[in-house]
Write a sequence for this structure.
């Protein structure tokens, strides 16, 4: 049939790829589809409690006027805000009971707009109505052909969320944002990303897979659906016009996101990459990526059932709830990495604000520290540095270089000083003693305090890391750090005044 000239180079040619690739492909499909997997496990540990949350203050509301670099924006329109965004969340009745808990953590009833699209009716409880988007049942797609050997035809239903949403005729929409039921969005940062672009033009904004082979098999031009992607209203309308006809041309594709990319490609629109969308096609602990986040706002986290919980001693949902505290205080800075040195003690210190602090015994350069350490593996199991679509470094097992990691335990806003105080406590792991190294032993430090002024306009400036400075303190076992904009001439190096003291 006519399909052959249009069929996907990535999927339908699989059968001619070496057997090993085929095997890998089969194994990833086990993970890829949220509709065929059911990897749910909620460990029953207690979370470290976040004390004094009830007294939590938030920074005052920010004025809508900012010194914005609105280079792609029309001059005469208001700034993009939450009201302009409609979410389309792909879900399945089978996994809804567990997955809805992820959506509840980030969804803001009466502020966020959008729908969860299900394959069939689910039981709705009262507290769901007040904490979740409206549920809709997708249209019947049995008339479309689906011929991929290992995938699931729900992919067609999910790709049509775009045309079904546009079909609702909602007003004042600038962006359609797609995500899965196991995607966590940092809504404020999503807006920070989208407000840079003119929604009247055709934009397709998202990010790739972390696993290089996934991008080879799907496309480096594809916005991965679980990491979430945004389609400008203009493009969504254009897609709606062609989508059903377009879908018929690609029955051999695997998923919903490659179907969308195939149709976006017919309109000649490339993927605008924003690295804050995280598909998380990784296994194990995402710590390495999060602790060395690219210098761009953190927009989403995906595959929450597959990756380890992002905080130790907390389950997956509790971990996301803990992130809500730094999100409320200073969302723009969430997970942003600052690097500094304690020259007298010979330590490298890395702060990933609102998440974790690490101390490494020894001086490690910024160009090393900004590479994610491989606490995770690619979907092909090996922690192989060539398996990823970005640079990584090994996670030091050597007892002398192994980082001491402190995780967020609490954060508050001090309105007198206009700063946030966040506390990080040592993750207790057994350590053999390191004898071969000079310098102080970081195990004396069991908590870290980080002070930082909230910076809602961080991303209106050219991307740059904040600087951090270690302050003297009399508190025993505590490291006190200030994080903020770098001063004139300040660079990330061991400062000479305390180098050999
Ligand atoms: C902005 O200007 C464009 C072009 O002049 C016009 O088409 C559009 O309607 C204007 N939008 C608003 C909100 O005034
Ligand atoms: C949302 O708005 C409706 C109608 O204005 C109101 O009844 C409801 O209490 C609001 N819900 C929340 C969670 O604010
Ligand atoms: C979808 O449509 C087909 C063909 O019209 C029909 O057989 C099937 O029962 C429908 N499925 C649902 C869930 O309504
Ligand atoms: C679906 O596949 C069948 C068999 O290959 C073909 O006859 C039919 O035309 C296809 N339908 C569409 C809508 O492409
Ligand atoms: C706090 O500091 C930030 C960053 O300098 C500034 O934007 C904000 O207006 C300040 N807020 C108050 C209440 O002073």
């Amino acid at each position: 049939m006519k399909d052959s000239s249009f069929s996907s180079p990535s999927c339908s040619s699989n059968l001619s790829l070496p057997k090993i690739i085929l095997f890998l492909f089969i194994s990833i499909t086990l993970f890829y589809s949220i509709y065929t997997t059911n990897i749910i496990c909620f460990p029953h540990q207690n979370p470290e409690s976040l004390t004094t949350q009830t007294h939590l203050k938030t920074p005052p509301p920010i004025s809508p006027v900012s010194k914005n670099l609105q280079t792609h924006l029309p001059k005469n329109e208001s700034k993009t805000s939450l009201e302009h965004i409609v979410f389309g969340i792909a879900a399945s009745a089978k996994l809804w009971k567990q997955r809805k808990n992820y959506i509840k953590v980030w969804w803001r009833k009466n502020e966020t707009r959008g729908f969860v699209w299900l394959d069939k009716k689910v039981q709705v409880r009262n507290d769901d109505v007040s904490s979740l988007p409206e549920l809709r049942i997708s249209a019947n797609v049995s008339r479309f052909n689906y011929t991929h050997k290992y995938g699931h035809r729900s992919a067609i239903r999910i790709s049509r969320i775009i045309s079904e949403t546009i079909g609702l005729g909602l007003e004042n929409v600038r962006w359609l944002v797609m995500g899965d039921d196991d995607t966590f969005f940092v809504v404020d940062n999503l807006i920070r990303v989208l407000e840079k672009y003119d929604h009247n033009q055709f934009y397709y904004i998202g990010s790739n897979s972390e696993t290089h082979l996934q991008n080879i098999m799907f496309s480096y031009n594809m916005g991965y659906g679980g990491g979430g992607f945004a389609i400008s209203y203009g493009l969504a309308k254009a897609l709606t016009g062609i989508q059903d006809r377009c879908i018929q041309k690609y029955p051999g594709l695997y998923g919903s996101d490659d179907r969308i990319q195939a149709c976006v490609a017919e309109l000649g629109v490339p993927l605008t990459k924003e690295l804050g969308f995280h598909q998380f096609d990784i296994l194990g602990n995402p710590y390495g990526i999060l602790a060395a986040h690219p210098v761009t706002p953190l927009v989403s986290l995906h595959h929450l059932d597959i990756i380890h919980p992002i905080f130790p001693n907390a389950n997956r949902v509790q971990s996301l709830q803990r992130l809500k505290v730094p999100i409320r205080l200073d969302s723009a800075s969430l997970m942003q990495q600052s690097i500094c040195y304690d020259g007298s003690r010979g330590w490298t210190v890395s702060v990933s604000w609102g998440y974790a602090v690490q101390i490494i015994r020894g001086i490690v350069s910024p160009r090393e520290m900004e590479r994610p350490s491989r606490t995770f593996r690619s979907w092909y199991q090996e922690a192989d540095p060539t398996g990823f679509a970005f640079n990584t470094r090994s996670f030091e097992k050597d007892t002398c270089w192994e980082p001491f990691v402190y995780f967020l335990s609490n954060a508050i806003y001090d309105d007198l000083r206009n700063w946030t105080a966040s506390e990080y406590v040592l993750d207790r792991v057994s350590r053999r003693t390191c004898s071969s190294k000079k310098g102080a032993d970081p195990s004396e430090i069991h908590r870290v305090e980080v002070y930082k002024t909230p910076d809602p306009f961080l991303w209106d400036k050219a991307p740059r890391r904040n600087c951090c400075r270690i302050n003297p303190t009399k508190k025993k076992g505590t490291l006190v750090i200030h994080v903020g904009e770098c001063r004139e001439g300040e660079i990330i190096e061991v400062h000479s005044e305390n180098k050999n003291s």
